[in-house]
């Protein structure tokens, strides 16, 4: 059995960021083999991931990057179980590592991002699993990317909600400023789509049926149910689709009217909203 010194423990701790006692235990189990000890620590992270798979992750941190030319945005949200973990340095450092990897590789999906291999030979997924082993909590990644004529972003003050919004027909308007206003609207009002054409057919059918049932419960004649339901659907579009919503900073304007007032014909091509715990 190899003698495990304090220097050995400190070396492994520097290599992995794991706790002192965890490093000592791993080195003892690995009989002083540093690579084997690293594997042991990684497996510990996987065990925690498996054990806590059903736990709720309602805390975390959101980070965003918009390219210099303003045509692409990337947003990562790493969720954890407790507020205290979301504030520790190695958690925030991991969020930045993930965002940097997304920008560097132009990852198009969460799966692609998780598979990115870093210079240390570990994938992003392995780095997440490693941190789970160190902090003892479940971590869950959400990733969004958006390309448009101009992309604007916004992160809410709680660092748990973020938005990317794509604008087109920007003209001479200040895309960053108006885009930020629209992104704040998206965080606050949670639209389901850009406009009614973006609402999926299943949602439309459900809203029509709900409208009919409500009218029926109010004693309305069967012959009027369809018309009443269509009226309720139009109200749904006004409240739940971005361009038709009233602007929260000035309810005399819809978002469509706000954009058109800044540059004739400017509109939203797409948006991505990410929220941790909401």
UniProtKB/TrEMBL annotation:
Domain of life: Bacteria
The keyword Transferase belongs to this UniProt entry's keyword annotation: no
Keyword Protein biosynthesis: yes
Domain Translation elongation factor EFTs/EF1B dimerisation residue range list: 74-277
Keywords associated with the record: Cytoplasm, Elongation factor, Protein biosynthesis
Primary subcellular site in the record, as a coarse category: cytoplasm
Chain coiled-coil ranges: none
One GO location term (cellular component): cytoplasm
SUPFAM superfamilies: Elongation factor Ts (EF-Ts), dimerisation domain, UBA-like
InterPro entries the UniProt entry points to: EF-Ts_dimer_sf (IPR036402), Transl_elong_EFTs/EF1B (IPR001816), Transl_elong_EFTs/EF1B_dimer (IPR014039), Transl_elong_Ts_CS (IPR018101), UBA-like_sf (IPR009060)
Subcellular location: Cytoplasm
Molecular function terms, GO-annotated: translation elongation factor activity
Described function: Associates with the EF-Tu.GDP complex and induces the exchange of GDP to GTP. It remains bound to the aminoacyl-tRNA.EF-Tu.GTP complex up to the GTP hydrolysis stage on the ribosome.
Similarity remark: Belongs to the EF-Ts family.
Protein name as it appears in the record: Elongation factor Ts
The organism of origin for this protein: Hymenobacter cyanobacteriorum
Gene: tsf
């Amino acid at each position: 059995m190899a003698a495990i010194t304090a220097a050995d423990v400190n070396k492994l701790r520097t290599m992995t960021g794991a706790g002192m006692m965890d490093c000592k235990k791993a080195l003892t189990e690995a009989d002083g083999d540093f690579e084997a000890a690293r594997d042991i620590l990684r497996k510990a992270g996987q065990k925690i991931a498996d054990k806590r798979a059903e736990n709720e992750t309602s805390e975390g941190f959101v980070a965003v990057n918009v390219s210099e030319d303003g045509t692409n945005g990337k947003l990562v949200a790493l969720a954890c179980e407790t507020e205290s973990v979301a504030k520790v340095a190695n958690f925030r450092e991991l969020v930045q590592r993930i965002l940097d990897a997304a920008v560097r590789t132009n990852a198009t999906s969460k799966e692609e991002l998780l598979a990115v291999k870093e210079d240390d030979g570990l994938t992003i997924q392995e780095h997440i699993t490693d941190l789970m082993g160190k902090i003892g909590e479940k971590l869950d990644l959400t990733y969004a990317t958006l390309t448009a004529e101009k992309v604007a972003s916004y992160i809410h003050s709680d660092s748990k909600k973020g938005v990317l919004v794509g604008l087109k027909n920007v003209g001479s308007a200040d895309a960053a400023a108006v885009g930020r206003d629209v992104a704040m609207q998206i965080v606050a009002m949670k639209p389901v789509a850009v406009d009614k054409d973006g609402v999926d057919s299943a949602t439309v059918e459900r809203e029509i049926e709900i409208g009919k049932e409500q009218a029926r419960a109010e004693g309305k004649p069967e012959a009027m149910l369809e018309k009443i339901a269509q009226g309720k659907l139009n109200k749904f579009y006004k409240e739940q689709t971005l361009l038709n919503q009233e602007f929260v900073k000035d309810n005399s304007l819809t978002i469509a009217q706000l954009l058109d007032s800044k540059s004739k014909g400017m509109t939203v091509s797409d948006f991505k909203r990410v929220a941790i715990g909401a």
